[in-house]
Design goal:
Layout: E1 2-4, H1 11-16, H2 20-30, H3 32-35, H4 37-47, H5 52-80, H6 83-103, H7 108-120, H8 125-137, H9 140-171, H10 174-193, H11 196-200, H12 217-247, H13 251-272, E2 274-276, H14 280-295, H15 304-315, H16 318-332, H17 338-367, H18 369-389, H19 391-394, H20 403-425
Antiparallel strand pairs: 1-2
Amino acid sequence: MATEAPAHGGYLDILRAPHAARLLAGTLVGRLPNGTGPIALTLFVRDQGGSYTLAGGLIAAYGVATAVGQPLLGRAVDLKGQPRVQLPAAVLSALGMALLALTGIGHLALAYVAVVLAGLFTPPLEGGLRALWPSVLGREDRVHRAYALDAVAQEVMFTVGPLLLTLLVSLWSPAAALLVINLLGVLGALAVVLSEPSRAWRSASREAHWLGALRSPGLLALLGSFFFVGLALGSITVAAVAYADDRGTPSVYGWLMAALGLGALLGGVVYGARQWSGAPERRLRVLVLLLAVCYLPLVLTPGPVAMTGLSVLAGVFLAPALACAFLVVDRHAPRGTVTEAFSWLVTTFGVGSALGSAAAGPAVELAGTATGFAVAGAGGLVAFLVLLATGRVLDAPTGSDTPAADARHAVGTGAATAVHSEKNTH
């Protein structure tokens, strides 16, 4: 059930909060290297005379390394704090890409080492930001709206990032673009970790357990579902390329991807403009079902104009589903594992997307473009079925030990300690 947000609500209310705009902007800029990584690597390898196969291999290595590194670094943030992990990781990741840009692809082993280093140390800024929202915004309804803003901002980044990269390549070269984008990433991470909320934040005490955040059944259920949401999106990317090839108009691919992002942007804006009551786990099931239903019409593969409209529709429920998923993570992650839990969501989504791309390729070759889009519809439906089958554990969150409560307590303690230390210094 939804009610209209109060007059003072909305995204502007979030951005006017102290530190909020800086944290959001710094996180988005800090994530540019990862958000543009696959495109940047493809352009760089082709400029060096390498094949698409080599580009794909480097992208895969980068993606796998990122998937491995995110939850590990997220756990380190929970244990050591944000500045001690985020900034060194950003620097090491940038050095990895700088190594590739300066040495090229002449020595393949070195090229793979460089991209693995860059991926493994990609800083978990996304999870870190979501851990900070409760302390920065205070009220629970504002935190919920911030999650929606977060999801919308991602769509903006994935639209603006490739445009910025293309501009840098046209002005200089793919190698220079790699260096500049990764320098911007370090500056973004620096803007975040030098902020007062990031410096003061401390995770709540946690139970020593090797599984960390993964010991939560509800979190595992959510991750299982969003693996298939990622799979659906990855398959759409490949199927859209095949659709553009069928039409003999490569530019159609860009229009379809832009339309998908526009749909997510519109859906996120509408979702975040309202206050929602009731359990987010139940709302998430409805949103994922609607997401799957909106993927299904893509198999019709009509003309470019109609297909662009269907792509807008396919994206409408993505940002709302992600925003709601962030809230569910917040409720189910074990105490003291907030950053790690959000990082696992990033990893699972990314792995699902990669496998979706891999599955759609053979589907298109064997049975045509429509089958590639059918993979997306099937992925969305399986995601919904996972949520349905695991309803019992999802509907039983951890209660007062949620990461949001942890974050508010932890930051309050950290801020008080910082103020006390400053007084002693003076």
